[in-house]
Write a structure and sequence with these properties.
two-stranded antiparallel sheet, 44% helix, mainly alpha, 234 residues
């Protein structure tokens, strides 16, 4: 008799203890352990990402919002932030075209790093040690921004004059102009724009000013401030 009565108390008691233990940690959680305050959330992608099979090599970009992972728990999958048409999206897409995002590469012509800088361009933004530059990703990021700021100042009048127009079927945008200047220098971009496309310089690998104007059109580069004396300083 007492054994049966005891069972009626034991079961509810076990349930109450279980609920108590399950709910107690919620009240004692330290949410500071999960805060993102102070973390560096400026993503810089250095690996080739997975693309939809329908995309061709010319369409490669960092917009992977439509990419679906069949099993998100498999370790073989790599996750990447959606950068879209932001400044980060602009520089990472350009870096992928230049070097596949590799900070430590040197091409056959001696151009260095993630964004493939030449030694003379580096000197103009205050960098005189190419070896130090090659092995310093932070300096490479600052160099990219400084060079873009300098080019934006040089091309400020051309940006104002030609942005929104079409030349040889290409919609001219500020980001396209800055990308082309990174490829061939601001002087070559001025010649392209002011000749309405008849002077279209290409680099040693066949990439032209027009190609970069088109490929990197439409990014938001308002983050880049025009600065005649921009330098890459750590």
């Amino acid at each position: 008799m007492f054994k049966k009565v005891g069972n009626y108390f034991v079961v509810p008691l076990a349930i109450c203890v279980t609920l108590y233990l399950a709910l107690k940690p919620e009240a004692s959680l330290n949410y500071d352990d999960y805060s993102t305050n102070g973390l560096d959330l400026d993503y810089n992608i250095s690996k080739e990402i997975a693309f939809n099979e329908e995309m061709s090599n010319d369409d490669m970009s960092y917009d992977v919002s439509n990419y679906e992972l069949s099993n998100p728990f498999q370790s073989s999958h790599i996750y990447f932030p959606h950068l879209g048409k932001s400044y980060n999206g602009f520089k990472e897409a350009l870096a992928f075209k230049e070097s596949r995002g590799d900070y430590f590469t040197v091409n056959t012509l001696g151009y260095l790093g993630k964004y493939q800088f030449g030694a003379e361009t580096l000197k103009m933004i205050g960098i005189y040690n190419p070896t130090q530059f090659l092995y310093n990703p932070e300096l490479q990021e600052k160099a990219f921004l400084a060079n873009a700021e300098r080019n934006k100042w040089i091309l400020r009048k051309d940006i104002k004059r030609f942005e929104g127009k079409k030349i040889n079927g290409v919609l001219i945008t500020e980001s396209g102009i800055l990308a082309a200047a990174h490829l061939a220098g601001p002087g070559s971009v001025k010649k392209f724009l002011r000749s309405y496309g008849s002077q279209n310089v290409s680099d040693a690998y066949g990439s032209s000013v027009r190609y970069y104007m088109k490929k990197f059109s439409g990014y938001d580069t308002s983050f880049v401030e025009a600065d005649r004396k921009a330098k890459a300083i750590l």
